[in-house]
């Protein structure tokens, strides 16, 4: 401030930390206050204080205030501007903040920070005033020339502007009436300058430096204006006038004239940068037009408007999206085959279909084909095959988990009118991968939900339909994006819950579960090496023989895939890693006592050293370090605890009225026991075990068929009557009572179970069956044969009874499983019963009629 200023600033000032602009003495600035310390300052000084003095603050530029007051004060900029708070506007949206209007008075320098909390207060030294007195003379004499030169430029600049605008005329008058010393600050805040330049002017404490620093800025502005005027000499349209006047609007920011300041130069630079990016980006014309319109709006918008940030985010996303950026496909079917084979053991059918798909793409070079959908139990490698496909093609891979998604905006984005709106997962995914031809794995499409917010499946239809997806419109983008280059692969556990329209667009490839032998191979080829690697172990440190792997598979896991197996192998690696790390720590100098200790600890399972094969003694830890730790069944028990699953089949079949069925679930095949009992009653049938309608009907069918054939098979109730329900109630139960079961394939099992109950004969304990029945005793085909047969094999059964028309499905079953099991295909219930009971279930009364087909 000039020497004549009557304002003597207080020697202690509360400090307002800012980083978004530089307030110079003599100008006005609007600043947003939202950090903890600044908020405190506004509340206790401006909103509560009553004196004029309490409205004087020290504004420290270039110093971001930490968001919370728990954080330390950052280093403060040395020089600040004492300022008068003229207006405080509070708002709670989008979060609590104040907007302060402050007018700069004079420079000050921080002498000492007196306190930091709740807001910083400092002892300050007023700089402009100190500078003023000793140099008053000097200003006139030594700086005379400099200040004259400065004044000349200032006048030249103002006169280049349109003098008919009142503000410009006022500025011209002010140039003469204000003290020269005040002019550098005022003019710097009016003309186009960056924050950095303003900071330099603020830091120029001596008047000479200040004049020297400001003159180049004035010259630059004059040159700029000259250039501008030259280019539009001929057509003076309105818009350009606005630009020409733009600097003049700041003229009003002289002391006393408190008008709203324009948005920050730096930000407008950003907007210009953004505009340039929009112009140079490869987006299609319609999108560019929308963007340019938004840029135009952005330029006119005050920065404090919430929409400003929204629009900017939108533009940034638009510029970032890979409109035209793609990776080049390298399609070599031979290499792809090798890669798929290397990454995945077994799953021949899936690999074959994937290769076919890739081959067609190679020949046809376009993607208009069905979307592949891998359907199978968890952990059978669906996701990892998807990843391999991306790898073979040399494309980016991105997984979109759809499980539980029940809002269509998740797929298609929110309209930009909503607060917190954002693009959908597809557009987000594209932004993440940065190319427009990635492989997108739509995981768990069968678990899409539905809610009031619309049906995400319907939105997916548009994404997946090759006819439509070249102009997929995300609500947030509001312009079309071409998805036709994206390769979509879907995965699901079951097709039953995939919406029909969606299923229609996909080619379902069933991925069945693995046999024990396949699991052992997968474990040794892929899982164990991967786990060893993840745990920093080497095969020289840990060895898991196949017999142990089989032990894990049969006793510790019951699954179609290999995910639990993988986890159990991980658990073994962890346990061994501890031992190896301990061993390294102790070095090879283990003494006998250690070995004995290890023996003593064997009772506690986690302490126990895995036993090396062939040495069940206590020498585990005493082994030289180069000996691998071998996991045998004993060590397995120590690490994983007692076996979780035991073979229980034969035990449960020790009385009449029990039979084993085979069920298919999304998690793979499973054994399903059926139990029946009879008691005195009035001919009622009770069914328990959470059954669906179809299953209940199967039970009624089974009873009806048995009643009508009771004589033929010599089935009687307790009192010897052929009317099976006479004075008899029947109860059928399907254990695992908490699991809902439905489907027709239990028909043959229910018949067998009831036949056993009424004949008093035991069903063979090594036989399982599946098949739908009709009232006339025919056996109809059912689905999921491979999974069901694998479940029977897993459980150690020997014979499987299937519908005759399912014979073709047996081809899918691996050779070793086929060798271990004997299959009986049945077309009618006679054949089923004959195969289910030892010695057949033939009828003595009319032997000629029924020939066993076994
Ligand atoms: P899904 O998607 O079917 O639930 P994942 O693809 O996540 O299953 O597979 C789980 C784990 O099992 C992965 O680490 C995968 O590498 C492994 N895996 C599954 N099947 C095979 C296989 N045939 N060969 C090698 N690894 C497999």
UniProtKB/TrEMBL annotation:
Its main location: other. InterPro entries: AAA+_ATPase, ATPase_AAA_core, Lon_bac/euk-typ, Lon_lid, Lon_proteolytic, Lon_Prtase, Lon_prtase_N, Lon_prtase_N_sf. SUPFAM superfamilies: P-loop containing nucleoside triphosphate hydrolases, PUA domain-like, Ribosomal protein S5 domain 2-like. The active site is at 745, 788. A motif (Microbody targeting signal) lies at residues 852-854. PROSITE patterns: LON_N, LON_PROTEOLYTIC, LON_SER. Residues 588-607 have a biased composition (Basic and acidic residues). One of its GO terms (biological process) is protein import into peroxisome matrix. Transmembrane segments: none annotated. Residues 13-222 form the Lon N-terminal domain. Residues 588-619 are annotated as: Disordered. Its EC number is 3.4.21.-. GO terms for molecular function: ATP binding; ATP hydrolysis activity; ATP-dependent peptidase activity; serine-type endopeptidase activity. Coiled coil: none annotated. It holds the Pfam family Lon_lid. ATP binds at residues 376-383. Residues 653-839 form the Lon proteolytic domain. Keywords: ATP-binding, Hydrolase, Nucleotide-binding, Peroxisome, Protease, Serine protease. It is found in: Peroxisome matrix. One of its GO terms (cellular component) is peroxisomal matrix. Interacts with PEX5. Interacts with TYSND1. May interact with enzymes involved in beta-oxidation of fatty acids, including ACOX1/AOX. Belongs to the peptidase S16 family. PANTHER family: ATP DEPENDENT LON PROTEASE FAMILY MEMBER. ATP-dependent serine protease that mediates the selective degradation of misfolded and unassembled polypeptides in the peroxisomal matrix. Necessary for type 2 peroxisome targeting signal (PTS2)-containing protein processing and facilitates peroxisome matrix protein import. May indirectly regulate peroxisomal fatty acid beta-oxidation through degradation of the self-processed forms of TYSND1. This is Lon protease homolog 2, peroxisomal. The lineage of its organism: Eukaryota, Metazoa, Chordata, Craniata, Vertebrata. The gene is LONP2.
């Amino acid at each position: 401030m000039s020497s004549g200023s009557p304002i003597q600033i207080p020697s202690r000032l509360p400090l307002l930390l800012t980083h978004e602009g530089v307030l110079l003495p003599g100008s006005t600035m609007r600043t947003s206050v939202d950090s903890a310390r600044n908020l405190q300052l506004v509340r206790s000084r401006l909103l509560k204080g009553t004196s004029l003095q309490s409205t004087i603050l020290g504004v420290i530029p270039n110093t971001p205030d930490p968001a919370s007051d728990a954080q330390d004060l950052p280093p403060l900029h040395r020089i600040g501007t004492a300022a008068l708070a003229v207006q405080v506007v509070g708002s709670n949206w989008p979060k609590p903040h104040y907007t302060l209007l402050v007018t700069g008075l004079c420079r000050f320098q921080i002498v000492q920070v007196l306190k930091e909390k709740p807001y910083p207060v400092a002892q300050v030294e007023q700089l402009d005033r100190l500078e003023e007195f000793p140099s008053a003379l000097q200003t006139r004499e030594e700086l005379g020339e400099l200040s004259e030169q400065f004044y000349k430029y200032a006048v030249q600049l103002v006169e280049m502007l349109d003098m008919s605008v009142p503000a410009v005329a006022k500025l011209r008058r002010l140039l003469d009436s204000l003290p020269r010393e005040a002019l550098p600050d005022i003019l710097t805040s009016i003309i186009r300058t960056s924050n950095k330049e303003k900071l330099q002017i603020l830091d120029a404490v001596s008047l000479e430096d200040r004049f020297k620093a400001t003159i180049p800025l004035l010259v630059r502005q004059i040159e700029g204006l000259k250039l501008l005027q030259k280019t539009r000499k001929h057509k003076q349209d309105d818009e350009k006038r606005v630009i020409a006047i733009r600097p003049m609007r700041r003229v009003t920011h002289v002391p006393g004239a408190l008008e709203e300041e324009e948005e920050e130069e730096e930000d407008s630079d950003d907007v210009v940068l953004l505009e340039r990016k929009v112009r140079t980006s490869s987006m299609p014309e319609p999108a560019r037009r929308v963007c340019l319109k938004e840029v135009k709006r952005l330029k006119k918008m005050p920065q404090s408007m919430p929409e400003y940030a929204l629009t900017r985010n939108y533009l940034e996303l638009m510029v970032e999206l890979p409109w035209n950026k793609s990776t080049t496909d390298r399609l070599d079917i031979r290499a792809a085959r090798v890669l798929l084979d290397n990454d995945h053991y077994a799953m021949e059918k899936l690999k074959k279909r994937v290769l076919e798909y890739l081959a067609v793409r190679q020949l046809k070079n376009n993607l208009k084909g069905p979307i592949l959908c891998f359907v199978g139990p968890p952990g059978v490698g669906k996701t990892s095959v998807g990843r391999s496909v991306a790898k073979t093609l040399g494309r980016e891979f991105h997984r979109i988990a759809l499980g539980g998604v029940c809002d269509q905006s998740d797929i298609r984005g929110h309209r930009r009118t909503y607060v917190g709106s954002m693009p959908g997962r597809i557009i987000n995914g594209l932004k993440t991968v940065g190319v427009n031809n990635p492989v997108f794995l739509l995981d768990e499409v069968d678990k899409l939900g539905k809610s009031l917010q619309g049906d995400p499946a319907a939105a997916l239809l548009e994404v997946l339909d090759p006819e439509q997806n070249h102009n997929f419109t995300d609500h947030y983008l509001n312009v079309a994006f071409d998805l036709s280059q994206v390769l979509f692969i879907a995965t699901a556990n079951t097709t039953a819950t995939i919406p029909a329209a969606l299923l229609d667009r996909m080619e379902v490839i069933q991925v069945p579960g693995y046999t024990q032998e396949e699991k052992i191979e997968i474990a040794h080829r892929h899982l164990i090496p991967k786990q060893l690697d993840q745990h920093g172990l080497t095969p020289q440190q840990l060895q898991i023989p196949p017999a142990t792997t089989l032990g894990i598979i049969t006793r510790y896991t019951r699954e179609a895939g290999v995910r639990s197996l993988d986890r159990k192998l991980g658990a073994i690696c962890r346990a061994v890693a501890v031992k190896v790390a301990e061993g390294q720590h102790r070095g090879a100098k283990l003494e006998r006592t250690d070995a004995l200790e290890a023996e003593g600890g064997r009772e506690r399972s986690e302490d126990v050293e895995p036993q090396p094969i062939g040495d069940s003694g206590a020498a585990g830890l005493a082994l030289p370090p180069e000996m691998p730790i071998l996991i045998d069944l004993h060590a397995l028990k120590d690490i994983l605890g007692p076996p979780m699953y035991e073979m229980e089949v034969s035990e449960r079949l020790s009385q009449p009225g029990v039979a084993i069925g085979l069920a298919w679930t999304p998690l793979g095949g499973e054994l399903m026991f059926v139990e029946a009992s009879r008691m005195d009653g009035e001919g009622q049938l009770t069914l328990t075990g959470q059954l669906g309608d179809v299953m209940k009907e199967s039970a009624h069918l089974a009873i009806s068929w048995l009643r009508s054939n009771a004589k033929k098979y010599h089935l009687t109730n307790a009192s010897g009557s052929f009317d099976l329900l006479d004075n008899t109630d029947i109860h059928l139960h399907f254990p695992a009572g908490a699991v809902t079961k439905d489907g027709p394939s239990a028909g043959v099992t229910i018949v067998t179970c009831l036949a056993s109950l009424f004949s008093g004969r035991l069903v063979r304990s090594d036989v399982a069956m599946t098949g739908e029945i009709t009232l006339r005793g025919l056996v109809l085909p059912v689905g999921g044969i491979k999974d069901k047969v694998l479940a029977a094999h897993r459980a150690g059964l020997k014979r499987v009874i299937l519908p005759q028309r399912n014979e073709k499905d047996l081809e899918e079953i691996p050779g070793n499983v086929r060798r271990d099991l004997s299959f009986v295909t049945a077309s009618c219930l006679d054949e089923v019963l004959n195969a289910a009971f030892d010695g057949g279930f033939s009828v003595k009364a009319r032997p000629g009629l029924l020939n066993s087909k076994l």
